[in-house]
Amino acid sequence: MIALVGIGGLFGAVTRYEIGKRLAHLKKAHFSVATFFVNITGALLLGVLSGIDAPKGAYLLLGDGFLGAYTTFSTFMFEGFALFDVGKRLNAAIYIGASLIIGVAGYYAGLQLGMLL
Question: Which of these, 66, 61, 46, 55, lies nearest to 110 by C-alpha position?
Fold first, then answer.
């Protein structure tokens, strides 16, 4: 079980890193597009995984491992509060609020999609 989580985590972390590099040119946005993207797509994919009622091994590999490393709540919190620290309160509120609302909606949409599969 630990190996499944570790292998999934390795690939999830590398995928997140690569997405961050590829979206680095969007740093002039009002918040971190890369972190927003991985957290929303991660919520959607976790919803799909839950909706298809994946076997325990698949869930350990993909849910706990890959998506656990792919998404990043700590970075999201750091970046959100960093915006507050530099006086960009509206950007911080939009980033944090949109991430939470769209993340929950993404998970629910993925769950519904997964149950259809």
Answer: 46
| Whole-number Å distance between alpha carbons of 50 and 106 | 12
Q: How far apart are CA 11 and CA 1, in angstroms?
A: 16
CA-CA distance, 83 to 80, in Å (whole number)?
Answer: 5
Q: How confident is the model at residue 27 (pLDDT cuts 50, 70, 90)?
A: confident
pLDDT for the residue 31: 83
Contact 95, 33 (CB under 8 A): no
- In angstroms, what CA-CA distances link 74 with 3, 50, 71, 109? 24, 23, 9, 24
Q: At residue 83, does pLDDT exceed 80?
A: yes
Host H or E run for residue 69: helix 68-70
CA angle, 35 as apex, 33 and 40 as ends, to 5°? Answer: 95
Please give the model's pTM, rounded to 2 decimal places: 0.87
8 A C-beta contact, residue 47 and residue 109:
yes
